[in-house]
Amino acid sequence: MIGYMYDHDFSLHDTGEHIEINLRTESIDEMVQEKYELFHIPTRVGDKDELSAVHDSGYVDWVESGYDNDIRMIASSDTILSAKSYNVALKAATSTKNVIDAFKQGVISRAFLNLRPPGHHAEIITGQGFCIFNNVALMARYAQDAGYQRVLIIDFDVHHGNGTQDIFYDDDSVFYFSTHEKNNYPYFVGDESETGRGDGIGFNKNIAYKDEIEDEEFLALYDALPEDFDFDIVLVSAGYDLMNDEYISSAQISFDALSQMVRKILNFTGDKPIAFLLEGGYNIDSLVQSVDVTLEQMTAD
Fold this sequence. Notes:
Elements: E1 2-5, H1 23-35, E2 39-40, H2 57-66, E3 73-74, E4 79-80, H3 85-104, E5 110-113, H4 135-145, E6 151-155, H5 162-168, E7 174-181, E8 204-209, H6 215-221, E9 233-238, H7 255-269, E10 274-278, H8 284-298
Parallel strand pairs: 1-2, 1-5, 5-10, 6-7, 6-9, 7-8, 9-10
Antiparallel strand pairs: 3-4
């Protein structure tokens, strides 16, 4: 059974004219409802203390009170903070725990999380890059609490998930594997020399690719998935801004190649649970088709 998570409250994160808009998740959900019969996993209103598993409590408090203190942007003015943003981001991050519970109960074996705002740029002490709290990181920590001790995180967003790397950089129980465009945001991070720190050395793998990468070269990168890491669960930061008609990258990836890449990840995962969490993707038509391609593979067997 394939699980699916979405909540209309995600649209309450009001970004105005920003490219990260509520139409992203709304359009995906419309497609899902029309085409697929998936097991709907409810969201939940978590407690902010739950975020301390991956974020500094001072940062969480700052976001909670930010709008009332006339703060409208986080970090380098790229991440909107509207009246409802804190509540929405809290719900998106903490709701990931319900997916882990569904895995443990045997209700589902795979899941797609249509979340907003995205999360993989959010570091321990700050949000950035359209991200407020790190959804995949919190999900990974809760997965470990639930018994999935060794977590593999795969990030195929065109931008490096600096936040996820930051949170797990000295941790040998979480392997972070990222493919991303070298000359793109967040800049000055995501180099292949960044392999971890302390106990985490060897558990962080970055593959930074050249501008305008095409299908064949991109697909070959996924032959480097970590064969020697004995994972219990796979979490995927699914950013679809690598597609050839996207706005903020030069990558030239086709829908056929995306389908093949998703299949590679699913085959690599085997019978272990796997969840895809929405990150980037800003051309609405391309984004919806990309998620459709992903779900086609997820439901194929």
